[in-house]
Each structure stands twice: as structure tokens, then as C-alpha cells.
Amino acid sequence: MTTNVEIQHLSDLMLDRHRLGELAGDELAHVATHLRACEQCGKRLQALIDDDRVFQGRFSLPELSKEALEKAKQRPAQRWGVLRTLSTMTAISPARLSLVAAAAVCVIGLTTLPRILFHSRTVEPTAPTIRYKGGFSVRVYVRRKGVSKPWVLNKDEVLKPHDQLRFVFDTTQSGYIYLLGADSLGSVMVYDPVRGQQPGLVKRGVRQVIKGAIELDDKAAREAFYVALCNKADLAEDLLKKLRSSEAKVQPEEALTHVGCEVTYIALRKDL
Amino acid sequence: MGLTLERHDVEELYRKYGSLVLRRALQILKNEDEARDVMQEVFIKVIGHYDSFRHDASPSTWLYRITTNLCLNKIRDRKPTAEASELNIGSAPNADPGAALEVARLLSRLPKELSDVAVYHYLDGMSPDEIAKVMGLSRRAISHRLARFREEAARLSQ
User: Fold this and answer.
1) CB contact, 8 Å: B33 with chain A?
2) Which has the closest alpha carbon to A228: A268, A182, A270?
């Protein structure tokens, strides 16, 4: 048995890690250098990217979760390879281990999968906007007339009355998150996660969702949403006051600022 | 489970890594139904081990390893009539088609610790260093297992 080692091309795994942004330092340098010189690996990388696009168009999560639930219920426990190994290691019969495994599957199924199946069932964003500034990112999910669809929100994206927006945060530092909105007609609002149901203190590296959606009214206007990551709680009133008095509500480029807060925004347009 | 996943978290994981998992499963199993079964199992594992998954420096590597293991389990569960030629070979640039066919033929008859190393090396064309990183073993251990695999392959081929 021989193997071709004269030209060590990049493996699919390495190309996937590159595609998914998991490489850094020496690994990234090595892959980047190789890709510049190797047409074959470049083509393979493009094939993986195309493959991913095809996948995005073919499958949906409900299909995954329903099937997974069914599989978890129906799969004969003795087919699980881990049972064979455990049986060998513990000298307990596979049948008895199957019962334990079945119980575990039921517990996992009952506690986890219903959440996946039923929680926020109608919100199915597939291409949310990501706005980065400093150490945190914000994703905006859009739902229109009860239907969510693939939608990339860009600056000055046109929204419709009654569109519902949901916001999700990732941070690399802990702090308190506030969500503020303003439109060119002069109305302003603040969602204070501390006083609302959502914990206001966000932990570094933990994804946070502001529960509930912001529903747009039916007046044509420019809309701007600000997300502030602050080092203090109870800043909602201060931020709201500042937003009311600033030009930011009509000129979002005049970003809202506040001591101890890092603020980012997304500006959108709402047409009738 | 230390952390509860929201539905959109699972969806995002699925969208981000689904194609990788499905392709990997198809590469080894060459059967879409089985590959999708494996994909379901992989994501159930992700849900169950989300804490360790999200702290892994390379989630892709974690998924690749889990998917490979589940596929090899599935191959062992297959009836012995499964043909080696049913396996998808040669898609990886480094793969040696002749060796890959031989590996495919032997997979169900080899100990698991040898078959996964053989898949990474002969089907995926990974170097021993890369396999060592994927499996969390030393390069020496990988080389040792590859040598054992060659011995076993020679013995089984006689």
C-alpha cells in the first residue's frame, strides 16, 4: 500500500477550517501560502464553498429536529456502538445498557428537543446582519407577516410596517446591554434588559437574546437602532435622554455616545 | 448540560457546520440516508455536549472526529455483504485510490483505533501530524497505529 506524499495538499478538514474562519497564526499562514500556489486546493476550497451553498438551499432545521426526535425514539439501542464498548468495559449486558441509554435518550429528548421544536418556532432567520464594533456583535433577525425568510439586512435596508425585529448579541467582554430605537419622526424608545425580563448583565462569550420582538409601526420613516454595551446598570434613562436630545435620531451617523458605553447602530428605512 | 441552547443557536450551528458533517458522512458512507442519519446523531451530540463543543478551539475538528466515529460504527453495523467499492474514495487530493479501496474493504474487520487512523490517512490523505491533532494523540502513536494497520491489512489480505 502506498500513499502519495510528494505533494501534501491541504485536507478537506483544513480547507473547512479555513472556510469557517477557525485558523490563526502559523496554520493560517501555511494554508494561505499553499492556496496561493496550489490551483488544485483552490478549486477544492471553491467546491466546498459551493457544496455549502447547496446545503443551505436544501435543508432546514425543522427537518433536522423532527427527524432527530424520531430517530432518538425509534433507534434500536443495541445499534449504538458506544453500548458495545461500554458492555465490554463494564461486563453489563448490552440489553441492560440499552435500557439505561433509552432512559437517557428520553430525558434528553424530553428536556431539550421540545425547546428546539416549539420555542420561537416562527422565527427562522437564515442570513442575519452582523454589525461589529469593538468587542461585540449584533445580529438582527427579521420576521414579516408571520414568516421569516433569508434576509440580509444592510444599511438603509427597506423595512415594512409591522416587521418584527429580534436582536442577538455576542460579546467578548461582560457588561450591560441596552437597546434603543429612534425614527426620523422624533419618537425614541429604549429597551432596558435590566428592568425587562432579560438579564441585563451579559457575560463574555455567552450569546444573549433579547426576548420578544420590536414591531415597527406603520409610519414611513428612517429607523435607527442602537445597541449599547455599558459598564453600569440603570443607564436606560440617561441613554434615552441623550438620544432624545441628540441628532442621532435623525442622523444615525451621529452615533449615540455615553461614557462607559460602547455603542453600535443599524440604520434602516421603513416604507409603506 | 451546562448551557441551554435556544432554537436559533441550534439552527446557526446546523447552518454553519451542516454541510461539513453531511459531506464527511457521505464521503465515508456513500449513502445519503445513512449519512443523514449520522448527521442527526452528530447534532444530537452537539446539543448534549454544547459546553465542550463551543469551547473547542476548532469546532470543525470536533465535528469531523465525531462524524468519522459514527460513520465507522455504522459501517461495522452493516451487513458483511457491503462492497468496498460503495465507499466514496478519491475526493481528497491526497487520497491514494488503491490504498483507499483496500482500507474501505477492511474497515469493518479492523479494530476501531486502527480504522479511524486509516480513514484519515488513506481516504483523507492527512499527514500523521494532522491526524495527531484531529485525534488528540501524539504523532508517534499515529505512526504506530498506521504501522499496525498495515500489518493487519497484510494479514487479512492473505
Assistant:
1) no
2) A182
Which of B1, B5, B10, B33 should one mutate to test binding to chain A, selecting the residue with the greatest count of A CBs within 10 A?
Answer: B10
Please give the pLDDT value at position A150: 41
Q: Which residues of A173-203 are buried (b: 16+ CB within 10 A; e: fewer)?
A: eebbbbbbbbbbeeebebbbbbeeebebebe
> Is residue B33 predicted with pLDDT exceeding 70?
yes
Q: Tell me which DSSP letter residue B138 carries.
A: -
Task: Share the mean pLDDT of chain A.
Answer: 67
Mean pLDDT of B100-121: 77
Q: Identify the CA nearest to A15 among candidates B36, B72, B11, B125.
A: B125
Q: What is the mean pLDDT of residues B141-158?
A: 84
The Cα–Cα gap between B75 and B29 comes to 7
Name, in order, each residue with C-beta under 8 angstroms of B76's C-beta and a sequence gap of 6 or more. A81, B107, B108, B112
Contact B40 A116 (CB under 8 A): no
Strands A261-270 and A157-159: parallel
A54 vs A170 pLDDT, higher one: A54
Mean pLDDT value of segment A226-234: 79
Q: What is the mean pLDDT of residues B86-111?
A: 58
Contact A16 B48 (CB under 8 A): no
Among the ranges given (A91-95, A171-175, B77-81), the one the predictor scored with the smallest mean pLDDT: A91-95
Query: B62: which residues sit within 8 A by CB, 6+ positions away?
Result: B52, B53, B56
Task: Judge contact between A34 and A28, C-beta under 8 A.
Answer: no
CB-based contact, B19 to chain A, within 8 Å:
yes
Exposure on the CB side of residue B88, measured as CA atoms within 13 A? 15
Residue pairs spanning A and B at CB distance below 8 A: 146
**Contact between A258 and A242 (Cβ < 8 Å):** yes
Region of poorest pLDDT, from A113-122, A145-154, A186-195, A244-253 = A113-122
| pLDDT on residue A137 | 66
